[in-house]
Amino acid sequence: MKLVLASNNAHKLEELRAILSTLGIEVVSQKEMGISVEPEENGTTFEENSYIKAKTVMDACELPTIADDSGLMVDALDGAPGVYSARFGGDACKSDRDRLEYLLSRMKAVPEKERTAHFVSVITMLTPDGRKVIARGECPGRILFEAHGENGFGYDPVFYVPEEGCTFAQLPPERKNRISHRARALDAFTRKIREENGNADK
Questions:
Q1: What is the pLDDT of residue 71?
Q2: pLDDT number for residue 17
Q3: Residue 62 CB burial class (10 angstroms; 0-12, 13-18, ≥19)
Q4: What pLDDT score was predicted for residue 200?
Q5: Phi, psi of 185 (to 5 degrees)
Q6: In principle, which of 24, 72, 104, 188 could form an S-S bond with 135, CB 3.0–4.6 Å?
Q7: Whole-number Å distance between alpha carbons of 117 and 159
Q8: What is the pLDDT of residue 173?
Q9: Beta-carbon contacts of residue 91 (< 8 Å; ≥ 6 apart)
Q10: How many CB atoms lie within 10 A of CB 86?
Q11: Domain segments of the chain as ranges
């Protein structure tokens, strides 16, 4: 089975390919398929934006698509940046590092015990024949006072996972692919796919 990823994010493509290949699913980016549409992510939830992205690209290519909408939710910031994680700080923040530094500046006065947060990922698969599969995954952690680690991307260097004793950015990619919010969403997604396939065989 081939799925078109409604994104050109190389990091997402790499993670999805690594995990879904175990199901015999090939994932290609929309760029590889010659699709240049830019979905208008105007939803207020991860579920809405994930669906918008998948539907926009499916309509453009008329092939099965998969989309991920993910972000960081910080309790001390009332759930921000949330669905605006990639746009946090507005036009003044033009890179991942800018957004990370902006987050740390907003958290400067927040004591350690109140720096809880969680990453969220929602995966949506749509097919032209009307099939829809949605799965959500979350990974709890807390925000450090400074960045640690060179792996990962986005807010990974300040997102500390207590069970691992380090940040996402300090984890080897293969380990992150097993415990991250996206990994958990994809795990739920693969379970649903297997259940559907199992039921179809009955």
A1: 95
A2: 86
A3: exposed
A4: 57
A5: -65, -40
A6: 188
A7: 8
A8: 84
A9: none
A10: 15
A11: 2-201
Determine whether 69 is an active site residue: yes
- Taking 60 as the threshold, does the pLDDT of residue 202 lie above it? no
Tens of pLDDT, residues 39-85 = 888 899 999 999 999 999 999 999 999 999 999 999 999 999 999 99
Structure tokens of 89? Answer: 């700080």
The upper half-sphere exposure of residue 68, i.e. CA atoms within 13 Å in the direction of its Cβ, equals 30
> Strands 159-161, 166-167: parallel, antiparallel or unpaired by DSSP?
antiparallel
CA–CA distances in Å: residue 95 to residues 90, 99, 178: 11, 6, 26
Q: 3-state DSSP call for residue 147?
A: coil
Pick the CATH number of 2-201 from 3.30.70.1890, 3.90.950.10, 3.30.420.140, 3.30.950.30: 3.90.950.10
DSSP symbols for 169-186? GGS-HHHHHHHSHHHHHH
Q: Residues near 120 by Cβ (< 8 Å), separated by ≥ 6? A: 46, 70, 71, 72, 73, 136, 137, 138, 181
- HSE-up of 64 (CA within 13 Å, CB side)? 13
- Report the alpha-carbon distance of residue 202 to residue 200 in Å, rounded: 6
In angstroms, the CA 56 to CA 52 distance is 6
Enter the tokens of residue 5.
């990823």
Per DSSP, the three-state class of 29 is strand
Of the candidates 69, 78, 96, 98, the residue annotated as catalytic is: 69
Q: Give residue for tokens 């990922």.
A: 121
Residue length of the chain = 202
